[in-house]
Amino acid sequence: MEEITDPGDPRLADYLSLTDVALRRRAEPAGGLFMAEGEKVIRRALAAGYPMRSMLVTPRWAEAMREVAAGAGAPLYLVGAELAERVTGYHVHRGALAAMRRTPLPAPSALLPGARRLAVLEAVNDHTNVGAVFRGAAALGMDGVLLSPDCADPLYRRAVKVSMGAVFSLPYARLPRLGPGLDELRAAGFRLLALTPDPAAVDLDAAAREAAGSRVALLLGSEGEGLSPRALSAADARVRIPMSHGIDSLNVAAAAAVAFYALTRPAPGG
Amino acid sequence: MEEITDPGDPRLADYLSLTDVALRRRAEPAGGLFMAEGEKVIRRALAAGYPMRSMLVTPRWAEAMREVAAGAGAPLYLVGAELAERVTGYHVHRGALAAMRRTPLPAPSALLPGARRLAVLEAVNDHTNVGAVFRGAAALGMDGVLLSPDCADPLYRRAVKVSMGAVFSLPYARLPRLGPGLDELRAAGFRLLALTPDPAAVDLDAAAREAAGSRVALLLGSEGEGLSPRALSAADARVRIPMSHGIDSLNVAAAAAVAFYALTRPAPGG
């Protein structure tokens, strides 16, 4: 354990100004770094095979995290809570922050063998929503996530945190282009269902019953725009969650959770 | 329409320092005021029968909201965007803010006739979660919400906003005490289901099938603590959403949405 008291110490370079999106993007090319925060999430990142570069802890968490860093073969930097906040630019709530090394993403085709239920996200570019959708997809038993090129990064700090580490538990890949990616899914026998608030779409429950024996890829769009016309027309069916009381939609994480649940529960009597 | 340029103008008193929780609580006793923000939410509050005290608009929204205020018989105050922010203490994103008058809440017993699916919230004291649970409950066809005495106020600004106005569409009441309230529900023929991550609980899907013909009250606890031992032991059954990939829970709004969906969809073939 190395105690650091100088905010300009070069060992703290990975932790500088984490709230600045531009800086994070510069620091996060392929093979770059990402941040895991809090004991549970850090342990999940390690269990998923991500190498640790270093860990920053505040005094209260030093003892608990010492063996985690040692097990990962990474240096452990001890800093005061005030210095941690000054360096990172935000309040380090969970007392431990690990700089992790990215590993190459699998090819989309690597997710297909054995998968029965995939989520496909189109242009979900809010990190909180990406994290929440991953948490729901992992918790409810989806087999993986495919991202359109313009989806937000699941390993961005906020997405990791909101997902409670689910971004480490669930396989995911990025489609180089959405259209050919959907063609590949269909060729592999997946039925493509597009989730939409469109009242003309099929009710989710009926669609889930019909798809019980098939492989399914569920297409989800962003909160504001929904799925693009191209994605909607590429789908085999449009699916909606029936709405009541004059409410027109759920937020994307709640809608996704409901759809994941409907598509993953076993057929009655099955 | 009355233009106001002085931040100390007494007509702006309802809109002062809306971000200060202590001030809001002082201003929101029974029969006090609450805030509705944005055209859609303001219209929903009016449609639900809440009287409008006044409305504050920024210039861009003045024309669109003029007839809404006139229809409600309330004064419309026009202020610059900067003055709006200075008075309220936050950026008035949706350009229109209405000070509404509370009406007396119904007694819990008034929600029971005709209701088949109720949500009962215990100690959900985060306004974002209360708003999100209401949005899901209304959208997914629950018939009403009962709140324990220590639940957060659904008419608090943040809850109203996150609910997208669902707090106006869905009947709700506050139980003077949780225990006797649950007794009353049971006496009215409701089956009490407690949602919990406890692995020993019954799977939601099986519980929903079993309860298809019954009246059901679904008990939901707060994100941190879950339901109290008292609430758990008062329930007729404990129900869980099966979890995968080592994830131990969903957030309360997503879990609630999944449970509402499971309990409100028609039985297969029914």
UniProtKB/TrEMBL annotation, chains A, B:
Q: Which CDD domains match?
A: SpoU-like_rRNA-MTase
Do you know which SUPFAM superfamilies this protein is assigned to?
Answer: alpha/beta knot, L30e-like
Q: Which residues form the tRNA/rRNA methyltransferase SpoU type domain?
A: 119-261
Among its keywords, does the record have Transferase? yes
**Record GO biological process:** methylation
* One Pfam family here: SpoU_methylase
Mind listing the UniProt keywords for this protein, alphabetically? Answer: Methyltransferase, Transferase
Domain MRM3-like substrate binding: start-end pairs: 30-89
What would be an example GO MF term here?
A: methyltransferase activity
Gene3D superfamilies documented for this protein: 3.30.1330.30, 3.40.1280.10
User: Would the keyword Transferase be found if you checked this record's keyword annotation?
Assistant: yes
Highest taxon of the source?
Bacteria
Know the name of this protein?
RNA methyltransferase
According to its UniProt entry, this protein's organism is Streptomyces boetiae
The upper taxonomy is: Bacteria, Bacillati, Actinomycetota, Actinomycetes, Kitasatosporales
